[in-house]
Every structure is written in structure tokens, then in C-alpha cells.
Design brief:
Length: about 150
């Protein structure tokens, strides 16, 4: 199987999508994240053509759901392949059900690594109790810098 198009979930997997498209000898379909956090398909995928979605890290499936919605909004007659190729599946998901598509997307991960997560707050999170501040890593460039620099 080789898809007609490949896309990477923005922001971190855009380049991964480009590289995967080249590996499959497929076209690259650009997805962009808008100011409001939603996704938009920039390129059009012709009716009946297949599109494979790739992602760097999958936790809860939100990125996949948003990507499928963006693809179907601009190219409703494209076929989104029911697999998501991810580098790291840290949420433990095996599949993601998207009701509008009437089928499940299987997670195909290079690495399965379940992370511990807690609701923010000193009563529920042991890290918060020790003074850590919860942030969403890729929400802002500043947050991403905090994560990167905190790892040194």
C-alpha cells in the first residue's frame, strides 16, 4: 500500500509528514494550525485519493481528530487512511474512533511508552505538590523553550 498523499500534524510533525511523503513517493498535503488552535488543510486532496496522517507523539488522539476534520472540511471526498503512523504513542491508545468517519483509526507506533499524568493541582499531582507548574509544551514557543531548557 502507498498513499496518494501524506500529511503531518502541525506543528511538530510537519517535517515528518514531508519526509514520509517522500518515502512513499506520495504528494505532501500541508496542514496548518490557525491562531484559534484549529487546523486547516492548505492543499486540496482530490476526490477518491488517499491521505495518510503521521504524528510525532500521540497522547489522547486530539491531533488526529482535528486533522481528519480539517481534511474532510476542505476535501470531503478524499479517503483518510484508517491508520495513524506515530513515532511515540505515550497515551497507550490502540485505536481512535472518529464517529463522523464510521471507522476507527489504528495507531501504528514505533515506540510505545506510557506516561504518567495527573490533573493539575497540589491535591492530585505529585509534581505540583513539589512546586512544578503545569504547562502545555507546544502551546507557545515560550513553553517549548521551558521544556527544552529544563532538560539540560
Amino acid at each position: 500500500f502507498a498513499p496518494d498523499y501524506v500529511t503531518g500534524i502541525p506543528k511538530a510533525a510537519k517535517e515528518l509528514g514531508r519526509e514520509a511523503a517522500g518515502s512513499f513517493c506520495a504528494n505532501y498535503a500541508a496542514l496548518e494550525k490557525k491562531e484559534d488552535g484549529s487546523m486547516e488543510l492548505i492543499d486540496e486532496i482530490p476526490a477518491g485519493k488517499t491521505c495518510l496522517i503521521v504524528e510525532d507523539i500521540c497522547t489522547k488522539g486530539t491531533g488526529l481528530r482535528d486533522a481528519v476534520a480539517a481534511i474532510k472540511k476542505k476535501s470531503p471526498d478524499a479517503y483518510v487512511v484508517p491508520w495513524e503512523f506515530v513515532v511515540v504513542n505515550r497515551g497507550g491508545l490502540k485505536e481512535i474512533r472518529i464517529e463522523t468517519e464510521h471507522y476507527s483509526f489504528r495507531i501504528m507506533a514505533l515506540v510505545e511508552y506510557r506516561i504518567k499524568e495527573w490533573e493539575p493541582g497540589p491535591d492530585t499531582c505529585p509534581l505540583c505538590k513539589r512546586g512544578s507548574i503545569p504547562i502545555k509544551p507546544k502551546a507557545t514557543p515560550e513553553n517549548w523553550e521551558l521544556i527544552k531548557n529544563g532538560q539540560k
